[in-house]
Amino acid sequence: MAGLAVNVDHVATLREARKINYPEPAAAAVLAELAGAEGIVVHLREDRRHIRDRDVRILRKIVQTKLILEMAATNEMVGIALDIQPDIVTLVPEKREELTTEGGLDLFVHKDAIAEAVGTLQNGGITVSIFIDPNPEQIKLAHQVNTDMVEIHTGIFCEAETNNKRRQAFANIVDAVKLARKLRLGINAGHGLCYNTIKSFKDLHEIDEFSIGHSIVSRAVLVGMERAVKEMLNLVKAL
Q: Minimal CA–CA distance to 63: which of 78, 79, 42, 77?
């Protein structure tokens, strides 16, 4: 059965909207774990637009399940990860002008740099995942750079505007997941998943964990963090 990792970035987004000291991402993480989340995810961006360094350090001290740090494969971020020691690092692409991560890492372009980052992090005792599009060639390259896991980008499927586009996008995800499992990679999936789109993943049992943030935090604004996480967790358990 797949697990659920909760991304609390957008709790920090609310905080930074007013440049004050609340709401606290660490408090949201505690509530998410109490509700049954099996991991807490944060993305420490170069511009620190939401999560700050102090957030990651606090979370490292209090998270009881596993702490997953999303980050670009830069020297600065690799150094921070080696110092803080999250349980998992997920390497992601990053552009200052984007509102959120727009797609997976292109390993055709960045293979050598990613391979170096993967090796350095693993030598430091950190499990590494790579956020990639559901493309067989990208999966093969991820395997070649010796990553421990991949996170399949589900955004194209979630944002598809027609049934045909959605069916094709989901078929691509299925193919990518099957190949990653054949190559014995750990498999996570995330980006854009919500209380409706998660239902489409029924019977795709190769996925180890779903990483979901925005929809849970949005729901939490209305019903509270624990209830929002429990509702999503129940949907994941039913897959």
A: 42
Q: Is the pLDDT of residue 34 over 70?
A: yes
Percent of the chain with pLDDT over 90: 95
Strand pairing category for 39-43 and 88-91? unpaired
Give the pLDDT of residue 103.
Answer: 78
Task: Check whether the bond before 25 is cis (ω within 30° of 0).
Answer: no
* CATH class of domain segment(s) 3-237: alpha beta
pTM of the predicted protein model: 0.96
pLDDT > 70 fraction of the chain, expressed in percent and rounded? 97
**Residue 210 in contact with residue 198, Cβ under 8 Å?**
yes
Q: Which residues are tagged catalytic?
A: 43, 70, 191
